[in-house]
Write a structure and sequence with these properties.
It is a single chain. About 35% of the residues lie in helices and about 0% in strands. By secondary structure, it is mostly helical. The protein folds into 2 domains: about 35 residues, no CATH class; about 45 residues. It is elongated and about 50 Å long.
Amino acid sequence: AMVAAGGGVGIVPEATALRHRRALPLATLRLTEPWSFRELALYVRDSRRLPKPARQLFEALREASETSATSAAGGARRRRPTE
């Protein structure tokens, strides 16, 4: 509300800023400093009990995470996410 009224600053994902920029006259600044990056996590109680589409998404995200972690570590594997 304060940003929309011209009296505030907000830090949001880039996609959110771009979507609202169409409706509001917003100035955007891409943050590239290390502090601005966030690690995301996906939690489930038991991936084997998920409905098939959710389990497939979980597995695809796990594989992508492991591939990304290996690349970022220069070939060293990070700890595998647990179920």
